[in-house]
Design brief:
By secondary structure, the chain is an alpha+beta fold. Helix content is about 15%, strand content about 40%.
């Protein structure tokens, strides 16, 4: 019997991570580690989610998916993705510079890595006043110029820089070079179920006594040198409580403000809630689940739920 599910968090230590999950998202972190990512809903072998609540507790998400198939994600979704769960949901604490990187598309990732590509969207939950991201290449930087400069470890003057603030949604398609440059950001990430990243430059940082591996040639093959930043504003206007932020091949994201009760159901696919602010509960015919900022919930298709409380969410469907 399916029901709204939360999962145990999978914490990923990163050289650029910090401790903001504790102070900003009420998470309990392992001691003395800089945590960069909390994998919230994942059936990826590099960070497998385990059900936290209800009769399916202690099962992995992959086990639940293998058992329930389209009943968990939607029949059309299952027919398209088969045994591979389609999405990966995270929170990220970028407390230092995120390495300059790029992701391949589905075709390249499948051919080279037997993975999905990595199209992703970042919802900025917190940002310091000096938060600046790298997004895309400067005009005039060609593949040949990129390779020549990279060969000399010269990454100056190649990348576009943009400022971001709380409430921005940054959409990052395969081929889009991206990183963080100054300040700190904390964000919710919705992405394809993939862990393929081509690292271009890591600011010469040392981890475990050596520099992290770069993937210059792989990156050069997939960079979209003309791609520009896609920043969406998500503030509610004129009393609205629901805002359509983005609709793409892999997922659609709405932002919803819950004030009191909000009834929800999706017939085509699962719903994934990422809790951005506040706290409350999710009630279905067979369960009640308390939720708060910094948590994530999977609701199966065809299941009517009532969200109660005072909070804001990202609502992701396929």
């Amino acid at each position: 019997m399916l029901y709204p599910m939360k999962f145990k968090k999978v914490f990923i230590e990163k050289v650029w991570g910090g401790r903001e999950f504790e102070t900003k998202l009420n998470m309990t972190l392992p001691e003395n580690k800089n945590i960069g990512e909390s994998w919230e809903i994942s059936a990826h072998p590099n960070g497998m989610s385990i059900v936290e609540n209800g009769p399916l507790a202690e099962k992995t998400l992959q086990e639940v998916y293998d058992e329930y198939k389209g009943k968990l994600v939607g029949e059309k979704v299952y027919n398209e993705y088969g045994k591979r769960f389609p999405l990966l949901i995270k929170y990220l604490d970028v407390n230092d510079r995120l390495s300059i990187q790029v992701h391949p598309d589905d075709e390249v990732a499948n051919k080279k890595h037997n993975e999905l590509g990595k199209s992703e969207s970042w919802y900025i939950m917190e940002a310091s006043d000096d938060a600046v991201l790298i997004m895309g290449m400067k005009p005039g930087i060609s593949k040949e110029v990129f390779l020549e400069k990279a060969k000399n470890n010269d990454f100056s003057g190649m990348f576009e820089e943009i400022s971001v603030k709380k409430g921005d949604l940054v959409d990052i398609t395969p081929g889009m070079v991206h990183a963080s440059l100054t300040g700190s950001v904390l964000f919710a990430e919705i992405q394809e179920n993939s862990d393929v990243t081509y690292r271009i430059y890591d600011f010469d940082r040392i981890e475990n006594g050596k520099k992290r591996e770069l993937h210059i040639d792989d990156a050069a093959e997939v960079i979209d040198f003309g791609k520009k930043a896609d920043i969406r504003k998500t503030e509610f206007e004129n009393g609205e409580t629901r805002k359509n932020i983005i609709k793409k091949k892999y997922y659609s994201i709405n932002k919803v403000k819950v004030e009191g009760n909000f009834e929800d159901i999706n017939e085509e696919s699962m719903i994934i809630y990422s809790i951005l602010e506040g706290k409350g509960s999710i009630e279905s015919s067979n369960s009640t689940l308390d939720i708060q900022k910094g948590e994530s919930v999977l609701v199966p298709p065809h299941m009517k739920v009532t969200l109660k409380g005072d909070f804001e969410i990202l609502r992701t469907t396929i």
